[in-house]
Write a structure and sequence with these properties.
The chain is mainly beta. It has one helix spanning 18-32, and strands spanning 35-40, 46-47, 55-59, 61-64, 66-68, 77-82, 87-90, 101-105, 112-114, 118-124, 129-136. It has one domain.
Amino acid sequence: MTWATPKTDWNVDYVPDCDDLNRIEENIRVLSLGKTGGGNLTSAESLNIGNTSAFFLLTGNTAIKYISTTGKVAGSHIYLQMPTGSTILFHHKEGSVPANYAAIVTGTATDVTHYAEELVELIYNGTYWVEHGRYTT
């Protein structure tokens, strides 16, 4: 499972059911992974993750060429989660890289599309963000 939009229209007469409790439990699990970023990426070429190393929930359909390196050292990890209805295309080592960003190196040395319900682990090696793992959630 992945992050689900929390229910916000609770009232005194509503009795939570199993779906509510599962959603709450899963959202707590996602937050425990350190979700500190994310958002709706619909036209981003460069993903600015700020000075964090954590879990990012990415929604929408987009292509990413570069990820920021601010505050990162070799060995820094980030995790990108694509929920239902989202696809993310990673461009493999594409073009001229902006300052404080690094290109992505995919596991296949070609552009790679990640689909909904996937969790992608990237490790910064000091030069590139390297796709380290790809997991179905």
